[in-house]
Amino acid sequence: MVCWALRRVGQVRARLARRDSGVCRGHEHQPLGPRPAPGAPRSTVELLGKSYPQDDYSNLTRKVLSKVGRNLHNQPQHPLWLLKERVKQHFYARYTGRAGTPLFSVYDDLSPVVTTWQNFDSLLIPADHPSRKKGDNYYLNATHMLRAHTSAHQWDLLRAGLDAFLVVGDVYRRDQIDAQHYPVFHQLEAVRLFSRHQLFAGIKDGENLQLFEQSSRSAHKQETHTLEATKLVEFDLKQTLTRLMTHIFGDGLDIRWVDCYFPFTHPSFEMEINFHGEWLEVLGCGVMEQQLVNSAGAQDRIGWAFGLGLERVAMILYDIPDIRLFWSEDERFLKQFRVQDINQKVTFQPLSKYPAVINDISFWLPRENYTENDFYDLVRTIGGDLVEKVDLIDKFEHPKTHRTSHCYRITYRHMERTLSQKEVGGIHHAVQEAAVQQLGVEGRF
């Protein structure tokens, strides 16, 4: 049985391996090189040993490109690695097959480059869904991108015949700049499918219950699921997650469930925990859309899925105040997580808080094709991790021209030394020039 399980994982990995404030006004930011003239050959992006031709969708910045392959979740003694290992240990110990082998297989080294079909279409995300926007994602080109969630591998793993698995990896999204957001973060996802026999085993009169029916969709179930099957899957999901969070945070944890919407699950929930008197959302989950399960070849099964952000949980668990710290190579940070036992309690001891240097920038927006994420990405590319946060502090619309101006406050802070105004001034000036030249704004500096 052990040999079969190892062979099965190897076959799946082999199968998966075989698959596998921008520039001119009115155009998306093209930081990897100038936009070629009409008819000129397009440039390519070299990433993880493969070449990807650039096109009008390409918006991958050098800053983000430098993070690909770092795989913080696989670096021993890193806080994200510690958290991943604790989750793995819990699932390995709690959920086993008949021969005592782990029920859940783990995939933590899948390539972050996926197709847009994998990232969106396989998960039933509509073509016009806002989550597909170039302003929110990092595209290599129109057909390939850096995954925005580990769910991008869900369909492939189901198609490979897996019924229970964890996926851990780095994911990429264009977003605001503050202590909780970074263009690269890490997710852990789990999926479990049940056959009719597995779901109803031990249930009184379970032999008479069915997984599927043809009815109407409601707030509580899908049109193809029986209410009994939905409630049992939902119960197993919530019980699994309650056990996991209790394992991570300890006994006596207050948990509540909030109804929400995801395109790939229904019903869907967000889990919130009460930590130090504050309700915090830690993950999303739900009963998998049967259309997705069917398309992957598991028509006789029903299942659940959940996904959590490792940084989000680690910041709560270890009391880490700034998401940039996960990328720090400062020994004062890293040594705090070198523990003998992965379950050992760790409370982060803050490094010296160096003073911030604050500069404002104001400009008139171009009349079209401006998004705030373009500006945030530009600031990140130029300022790097010296930028602690960017706040939009003022908007103004000219009463005659109806043009709009924005004023942003950029907070610069180094986590390991004091910055000078002269040093920051050079960076800030470069941001101003780039905003004019690349985003098409007009300065009000």
From TrEMBL:
Monomer. Residues 169-350 form the Aminoacyl-transfer RNA synthetases class-II family profile domain. It catalyses: tRNA(Phe) + L-phenylalanine + ATP = L-phenylalanyl-tRNA(Phe) + AMP + diphosphate + H(+). Residues 352-444 form the FDX-ACB domain. Residues 21-43 are annotated as: Disordered. It is an enzyme of class 6 (ligase). It holds the Pfam family FDX-ACB. This is Phenylalanine--tRNA ligase, mitochondrial. Keywords: Acetylation, Aminoacyl-tRNA synthetase, ATP-binding, Ligase, Mitochondrion, Nucleotide-binding, Protein biosynthesis, Transit peptide. GO terms for biological process: phenylalanyl-tRNA aminoacylation; tRNA processing. The lineage of its organism: Eukaryota, Metazoa, Chordata, Craniata, Vertebrata. Its main location: mitochondrion.
